[in-house]
Design brief:
three-stranded parallel beta sheet; binds spermidine; alpha/beta; 44% helix; seven-stranded mixed beta sheet; 2 domains; 17 helices; D-Maltodextrin-Binding Protein, domain 2
């Protein structure tokens, strides 16, 4: 090698090594303990390019566009479509020795969407419910609140609450599933015409809603600027942890359960490093740190022993027996119904 080239190559080496040891992770907002990412980088020398999304639609678009994502976090009901369209790689279980810590019941639930759990590792899960700032909401409502989705879906009730702030998740599957269940029906077994009527009902509620957003509501709940929000459990519990008198309620009519999963997209550039990242998160102590910070139940059965006792027994974090009976998993929709859902939701979100 010419003498002058050697120092140049040496100078380039760190850059080359860095370019090789990088993974791109795409996760839900507020869904990791940031220190865990730093520790992973320090421990392995692999840099993490970490980005977040706040709706299932954003993730679906990124995966459909073939973005070079190494680890993504879809919910269980999105898996059948992602798998059948070839968007996910099968996992190499040999590279995931910590997989043994996973909760077997969750694995069997996810297996209904991902046969033999070939593509997905349960990460965090939980219930959808209502985050209620009780003093504010009771004042606006004029008395004790029913433990019911009527707070949201009954136009007269949500109108009363609108003065202290009502918000809805930007989550069509969750919203339509709980609305139809409240009406005694099932989203996955509804006709497209029924879904359109649900869209009309939602449109009539629109004036009572401050906004439809799955990220902004976290800061607003934490700051006491909303009194009733449709919420994912951890986001509601975080508002209580921030000192607000916010309760997380799973209404009497029942609600949906989601299981979010770590997957390796077909478009991943570094499936080898993605497996290392997933296995790192599967260590029970790491999984416990993530649950302690996000306040979402862990997919890792052995993480529970590493949670503080107060957290282990915190009402609402891991649903009790009675609540579990009222929860049903989100269902994947048949293709045609999925199209109608998207149309109904786009019109509702745009206020049409
Ligand atoms: N803070 C965002 C938490 C995301 C929770 N999972 C959403 C599941 C959507 N089906």
């Amino acid at each position: 090698m010419p003498r002058l080239l050697a120092p140049l190559l040496l100078a380039l080496l760190p850059t080359l090594a860095q370019a090789e040891d990088l993974i791109r992770v795409y996760n839900w907002n507020d869904y990791i303990a940031p220190q865990v990412l730093k520790d992973f980088e320090q421990h392995t020398g692999i840099r993490v390019d970490y980005r977040t999304f706040s709706s299932a639609e954003e993730l679906e678009q990124a995966l459909a566009g073939g973005e070079p994502i190494d680890v993504a976090v879809p919910s269980h009901n999105a898996l059948p479509r992602l798998i059948s369209s070839g968007r996910l790689q099968p996992l190499d279980f040999k590279l995931l020795p910590n997989r043994k810590h996973l909760d077997k019941q969750l694995l069997s639930k996810v297996a209904a969407s991902d046969p033999n759990n070939r593509h997905a590792v349960p990460y965090l899960w939980g219930a959808v419910g209502l985050a209620v700032n009780t003093p504010q909401a009771e004042k606006a409502f004029g008395g004790p609140l029913p433990q019911s989705w009527s707070l949201l879906f009954d136009p007269e009730q949500s109108a009363r609450l609108s003065q202290c702030g009502v918000s809805l998740l930007d989550a069509p599957d969750e919203t339509l599933a709980v609305l139809l269940n409240y009406q005694g029906r099932s989203l996955a077994r509804s006709a497209p015409s029924r879904l359109k009527r649900s869209g009309d009902l939602l449109a009539a509620l629109r004036p009572n809603l401050r906004y439809i957003d799955s990220q902004r509501y976290i800061a607003d709940l934490n700051a006491g600027k909303l009194c009733v929000a449709m919420a994912w459990v951890g986001d509601a519990l975080n508002a209580a942890a921030a000192g607000q008198p916010v309760n997380f309620m799973v209404p009497q009519e029942g609600s949906v359960l989601f299981i979010d999963n770590l997957v390796i997209p077909a478009s991943a550039h570094r499936a080898d490093l993605a497996h290392r990242f997933i296995d790192y998160l599967l260590q029970p102590q790491i999984a416990a740190r993530i649950t302690s910070e996000t306040l979402y139940p862990s997919g890792n059965a052995d993480a529970r022993q590493y949670l503080d006792e107060a957290l282990r027994n915190q009402p609402g974090l891991y649903p009790d027996k009675d609540t579990k009976r009222r929860l049903f998993p989100l269902e994947a929709l048949p293709e045609k119904l999925g199209v109608t859902r998207d149309q109904v939701w786009a019109a509702f979100r745009a206020g049409k």
